[in-house]
Amino acid sequence: MSLLTERSEKRAGELPAVYAVNTFFMPRLLQAGYSGVKRWTRKVDLFSKDIIPVPVHCGNVHWCMAIINLPKKTIHYYDSMGRPNQPVLDALVHYLQAESLDKRHKPLNITGFVVEHAQNIPRQGNSSDCGVFSCMFAEYITRNVPITFSQAEMPYFRKKMALEIAGGELWQ
User: Fold this and answer.
1) Are 46 and 38 in contact (CB under 8 A)?
2) CATH classification of the domain holding 68
3) Which of 121, 151, 161 is closest to 137 using CA atoms?
4) Catalytic positions
5) Domain span holding position 52
6) 113 in helix, strand or coil?
7) Into how many domains does the chain fold?
């Protein structure tokens, strides 16, 4: 996730501005509410970003991705197994509202925001590729390209991700 943020900074103006939160963000938000994570963005103006990927670990066995797109006024939940997660979506809406009040000292108008489980997305055909699917949802969206991958590409994406992490930089 940090490589997505770095890439957007290196290619500012070319790609959407991204601030990816880490894997500990969502569990802490769900457990402690805004007060548990408010300091995590003290050096970041979240509302100056376009896309905020939020990794979600469900039941310690399955990875999903929530993506906040501020210019499009959307919060989508991407689950490669097709399961909705309304508590995560609700928590992210409340988080954005609290973040706006705390950091900008004004309420966030969520009128017109679309908050939903993403439809018509690729599905995994096994029980081991959820993490790769989640990362690829974030990868494609932060590059501002349509989600066109499938289960068949997961072995390639696994190798590509390992090489990118080892090299400290995303390809493309």
Assistant:
1) no
2) 3.40.395.10
3) 121
4) 62, 79, 130
5) 2-167
6) coil
7) 1
